[in-house]
Specification:
TIM Barrel, 48% helix, single chain, globular, alpha/beta, two-stranded antiparallel sheet
Length: 283
């Protein structure tokens, strides 16, 4: 187990990983129905899910800049899923505290409710960062933004095919897309504690390029590589910051389900290593 010093933040953890040329974020979208039979057989749901995550983490930890469990896959299993998620985060904090954990929960509500969401994610689960919706504005997100040591990752341009229904709407005097307005607010008005990041999908490289130019060296969580069809070369060229860093390039299914056999962890490592090499090829 590696010990961390005081004053470690989500951003400083990321930067330490980037210094080792690690830009892959492994999405722990651990759909229980898709787990290998060797994992599910003879184990309670909670144990099987945790065991799968632990094996993936142990096999890939030296190649990544973050892990990103999506809350939905755990909440769908009720108490057993929630305990598996908590156990996974606890394991990460104990064994690999230098690697940030991002809870992909996409929280958003009025301020008093967000206080509860922040306490649940940061104080109970102990994650390093969380994804949030911008729709309710800065005032509502204040309980998140106040957590200086944590990462607040705001949705800007999501990776799904229908993202443009609202995100591309022209607004304001300049009639620029709404996603650019959100990105500007996050970069220029919400980031007083230096703990913000933004989400832009790899499936929209032109938009990613525009957001990077606006956001400077702010971290960008980039989903959509792998199963969703995002291309590594265009993502890296559009998404890297002035230092060649700034990218949290997420892949989920293409890594954790690279094999459904007994070699699932070995295959996950191979897939992670291949993606890592490809990212660094284009930097």
């Amino acid at each position: 187990m590696q010990q961390l010093t005081n004053n470690i933040t989500f951003i400083s953890k990321l930067e330490a990983c980037w210094q080792r040329d690690n830009f892959v974020c492994v999405g722990l979208d651990s759909d229980y129905e898709q787990l290998p039979d060797i994992i599910k057989g003879g184990r309670p749901v909670e144990d099987g899910l945790f065991h799968f995550n632990r094996e993936i983490i142990d096999a890939t930890h030296d190649l990544v800049c973050a892990y990103k469990p999506n809350a939905a896959f755990y909440e769908a299993l009720g108490e057993a899923g929630w305990r598996a998620l908590a156990g996974t985060v606890r394991y990460m904090r104990e064994m690999y505290p230098q690697i940030p954990v991002i809870l992909d929960a996409k929280r958003a509500d009025i301020g008093s409710t967000n206080l509860g969401y922040a306490q649940s994610a940061f104080d109970y689960l102990g994650v390093d960062a969380i994804t949030v919706h911008p729709y309710l504005g800065r005032e509502a997100l204040a309980p998140f933004l106040a957590r200086k040591e944590k990462g607040i990752i705001v949705l800007v341009k999501t990776s799904n095919p229908g993202a443009g229904e609202f995100q591309d709407l022209p607004v304001g005097p300049q009639q620029e897309p709404l996603y650019m307005v959100v990105a500007r607010h996050v970069a220029h008005d919400w980031n007083g504690n230096g703990n913000c990041a933004i989400v832009v999908g790899a499936t929209y490289p032109d938009e990613l390029r525009r957001v990077r130019a606006l956001a400077g060296d702010m971290p960008i969580l980039i989903p959509g590589i792998g199963a969703q069809g995002g291309e590594v070369a265009s993502t890296v060229k559009a998404g890297q910051d002035s230092r060649g860093w700034g990218m949290i390039i997420n892949a989920s299914r293409s890594i954790i389900f690279a094999s459904r056999g007994s070699d699932f962890a070995v295959s996950a490592r191979a897939a992670t290593g291949q993606l890592r090499a490809e990212i660094n090829q284009y930097r």
